[in-house]
Amino acid sequence: MLKKIFLVIIFSLIQIVFFDYLVSAQSIQDFAISLQNEYIFDQNGSCKVSETFTIENLMTEKYLPSFEYHIKNTNIKNIEVFAGGDKYDPQIENTDTYTKIKIGFNDKVLGKGKERVFTINYDVDNLAIKTGDVWELSIPKIEEANLYKNIKSILVIPKIYGIEAYISPDYKQKNENDTSIIYHFEKEELKPSRIVAGFGNYQTFTYIINYRLKNEDSFKKTESISIPPDTSYQRIFIDSIKPEPDAVFKDIDDNWIAEYSLEAKQTIDVSINGKAQIFSSPRAYLVPKTQSLYKNIEPTKYWNTSDEKIVEVAKSLEDPQAVYDFVIKNLDYDFNLKASERLGAVNTLSSKHKVSCREYSDLMITLLRAKGIPAREVIGYAHTDNETIKPTAFFNDILHSWVEYWDTENDYYYFNQFDLRHFAFTIHGSSDELPLPPGSYSKDVGEKDIFINTSSLSNYKETKLDFKNINNILFIFNRKYSIMMENKNHTALYDKNIKYYGDNKLLSEDNFEAILPYSINKKVVKIKYSFFGKNSPDSIMVFINGGDMYLNGPKNLDVYSHTILIFVIVIAIFMIVLTKLHLLKHKPV
């Protein structure tokens, strides 16, 4: 199963306002503070937050007269404070960037080991957003977590949000009731980062991709484009391709390639639009072929696995996790870095400058391959609602690069769990450059060719494949009965068994792993010679996974062809006889 190694920090892609917590006390070292947060979400994405503080005196003579709490979020409301059954009236101050809550206590809690317990409740509407078909949550990071004796966070998620697609960090405990899923986190899990989670079976994107193809030569030639393919993690629906291609097929890396014939000096603009369904877990039946895996450990121009420094570093790294950690630690990553000359893995290894996701991918792929682990690059779209951090790593559009590697031991395992925000356009395995991804066929430098938005999935229904016979009089000589099969569905069809019968006799059988949308396949069935169609089938039945359809068989073609042939022969004989008679008549005596 292919493993996703995301070279972006997925948290930076999710534009949800987060909190910074600041505790201000007279002398924090004189107290031990424990915190329990509870976040209860409703079906509309609103959240009721309850934060309970337990402050223990560590000194006999010290007590806490007041408490100040800063929340870097101005969207909170209905703030209430309770302590010992009493409701307090806090001082609330809103600034441009945060909300300050100051609590003055009416009593004194004195004595070492004595505790003051109080709770701050409030409502907030911007911790969860729904993008397309997915609910995405970002829970505030606990700043200065080491100052707290204990931290516990509880996340209550309505089941209506859908299945857990991803969640980070790992939770300590998970349970459920009739309506909700409850996640429990503790201090060790919460120290490094805030909680980020996604819920839903899949995400849906709409896409429009434009291409410009030019034939600069003075003769006719074929040009090709790569279009977004199905992968283990996504399913592609194509609503239209204009103009329609001459052929659509898969290459060794499972890219979808569309071909066009261009006349000399011809230019055509191609536009494709549709939807992409992004899954939270892999589909097992879409796995690469063995031949592809072997190609994915070979050295290339930018993935030079034989370089001495690369080999040395690879030997020092135990496993893919160590490779990932090395790359993250040693490269200075800039998510907003503009397109520049591609460095390749060897130059990236020694680079002291900021690098883009492309260099991250190149170095990681090369180190993995140097260890004998098949790895490849995926170029695609990384979704963010924040225009200031949209990836612009290379080419003219919002393209991004990440890595997949092959793990023979586990079905699916991620360094960073799949976040439903990555839409693959092109896979580079056997080549580190080709095929060119969408966005690199621009009409003009800087012109935008890719348009992506979140959406909901349409009700696509599978229709039957379209079959036509495409035969002529030559059939009577070569006995090759030709059938054209066209997939007019919006999506690829998989695992199709097709049998061809003539008068209930099996003539031929095919097994298709995949039949791509807009693809045309030609099938040739050998038919035994039959004079005047005596033994030729009246019809050809095409039987597909339990369904069938009928085509006109070769019998009538045989009859017509033989009739024409005999007529031609008779005419020819007649003309020969006439010619001979004419010659005899005018023969000199």
How much is the average pLDDT?
Answer: 84
- Any idea what the radius of gyration is? 34 Å
What proportion of the residues form beta strands (DSSP E)?
35-45%
At CATH's second level, what is the architecture of the largest domain? Answer: Sandwich
Helix content: 10-25%
What CATH calls the topology of the largest domain is Immunoglobulin-like
Distance between the termini: 93 Å
H/I helix tally: 8
Given helix and strand content, the structural type is mainly beta
Number of strands: 36
Observed structural traits:
single chain, 589 residues, mainly beta, Immunoglobulin-like, C8orf32 fold, 3 domains, 8-stranded mixed beta sheet, 8 helices, 36 strands, disordered N terminus
What does this entry look like structurally?
The chain has 589 residues and is mostly beta strands. It folds into three domains: 177 residues, Immunoglobulin-like (Sandwich); 156 residues, C8orf32 fold (Roll); 93 residues, Immunoglobulin-like. Helix content is 15%, strand content 41%. The chain is built from eight helices and 36 strands. The strands form nine sheets. It has an eight-stranded mixed sheet with strand order 7-6-10-4-3-13-16-15. A hairpin with a 5-residue loop joins strand 21 and strand 22. Helix 3 crosses helix 6 and helix 5 crosses helix 6. The radius of gyration is 34 Å and the shape is elongated.
Give a quick precis of the structure.
The chain is mainly beta and 589 residues long.
